[in-house]
Specification:
By secondary structure, the chain is of the alpha+beta class. It has 2 domains: 35 residues; 219 residues, no CATH class. It has 8 helices and 6 strands, in the order αααββαββαββααα. Strands 1, 2, 3, 4, 5 and 6 form a 6-stranded mixed beta sheet that branches. Helix 2 runs parallel beside helix 8. The C terminus is likely disordered.
Length: 256
């Protein structure tokens, strides 16, 4: 009995030590995650939103759109609530394409808006705004603009292979993509204000940096933005390669 009791005690000691080691590892991972600021976590979430949207080919942003995009803004989990009066608010980041084809460091943004009407419901929406021309880019670089009033917007075409050459290319400065989870069937962003989030900018860069300086590539990407940088580079390369494969086929069809 003493021998069995001794073995049992040793087993309990080993199990206890193993549990403490495992718990310590988990706690250290939690602590490491807690060390990330709110904007760094939001940058990671933005990267995940882009990966998940592009991971569904029939619902994805067309490669042609990504290839021609001047800027991209991602707002993960924008909250939209309506009880008679509707409103939305969200935080995210914007990036713009530089002259060398790379993407700028992320610039923190907020989007806020409201609408009247008989409405009831609420939802969280993953929102992606794609700036398609220089005029839309200038609105974004001003660090504050209103969708619909300053910059025209339209729901973007979907599907990786979509030609994306319809009327929106001449009219819309912004293409909108939303992934909704809730009671609304769609989203109307007209009247919503998009502007630089100065507090989050200070938190991310350790000081205030003008919106245009970030989006023009005058500052280096800050710590914690690597996931978004890698995702954008991968999606851009895919869009460029896929676009080159599709172009000869379209030209061949057109010649017939």
């Amino acid at each position: 009995m003493k021998r069995i009791s001794g073995r049992l005690s040793r087993c309990l000691v080993v199990l206890g030590a193993s549990f403490l080691l495992l718990a310590g590892t988990v706690w250290s991972l939690d602590d490491r995650d807690d060390q990330k600021t709110s904007i760094q976590k939001r940058i990671d979430e933005s990267a995940n939103v882009l990966k998940e949207i592009m991971g569904t080919p029939d619902k994805a942003i067309p490669d042609k759109v990504l290839k021609d995009a001047k800027c991209i803004a991602v707002i993960p989990s924008m909250v939209k609530i309506a009880i008679g009066f509707g409103g939305n608010h969200g935080k995210g980041v914007a990036v713009c394409r530089l002259s060398n084809g790379a993407w700028s460091a992320p610039a923190p943004i907020t989007i806020t808006g409201g609408s009247w009407g008989l409405q009831l419901g609420g939802q969280a929406i993953d929102l992606v705004l794609v700036v398609m021309n220089d005029r839309g880019m200038e609105h974004l670089l001003n660090s504050k603009f209103k969708i619909g009033a300053d910059a025209s917007a339209a729901a973007g075409p979907v599907g990786r292979d979509a030609a994306a050459d319809t009327d929106w290319k001449m009219k819309a400065e912004l293409l909108t993509y939303s992934r909704a989870r809730g009671l609304f069937a769609g989203i109307d962003l007209n009247g919503s204000s998009v502007k630089q989030d100065k507090d989050e900018t200070h938190l991310l860069y350790g000081k205030f940096v003008p919106f245009e300086d970030i989006l023009r590539g005058k500052v280096s990407p800050p710590p914690g933005s690597g996931a978004l940088e890698v995702t954008l580079r991968k999606l851009t390369n895919q869009a460029n390669e896929h676009g080159e494969l599709l172009e000869p086929k379209r030209m061949e069809v057109a010649s017939r």
